[in-house]
Structure formats: C-alpha cells, structure tokens
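Appendix B. Chain record.
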Amino acid sequence: MNLLFDIQTIKFNSLSDWLILNGKLTQGSLNSELFLKVDQSFLNKILNRIQRANPDTSINDYLKTTEDIHIKDYEFDFTSLMKTSVPMSELKFLTTFNEYKFIRA
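Structure tokens predicted for this chain:
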C-alpha cells in the first residue's frame, strides 16, 4: 500500500523560507496527524499537484491572507477539499527526515 499525506493546510508568511504542511499520514486504515516543514520553493509543485487532482475547483479560492504591519500570513485551507493526497515518496525529497514531526493520534 502507498503511504499518502493528505494535506489539510499549507501555512507560510512573507518573512519565512518555509512552508508548514499540516495533514494526515495515511496507509491503509491507519493514519496519524503530521506537520512537515518544506522549503517554500516547492509551493507551486504542491499546489499544481492538488489543482490537477481537482480540475473543477480553483485552489486560489482556498487561500486566506492576513496582513499585519510588517508581515503577511498566508494559509491554504483544504479541509473541505476531497482530493489533497500526495504520495510521501514525492514529499520525502522536499524535506529531510529530521524535519518530520509526528503527533500521536
């Protein structure tokens, strides 16, 4: 069985070089919450994959922006989107093993 990461949110800001991916790591009937820290240069690659899986929906509709005096925060909230799974074999090249942070389910 494939190990899939179902992305629920992607968070980043204008001052950081990192994305924080929040989602569920799933293999068969087992799943657990996971946060991944990924270089921001891979944002388009991840968004294009989600957009291809959901051709009838614009992923830009899921973007929320908040602005402070010195910083802009961005969040893609895909919790209501059905097809957001990305194989971990693709994501493992975007981050190092020590960046994984598991949360016990």
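Further analysis of this model is presented in Appendix C.
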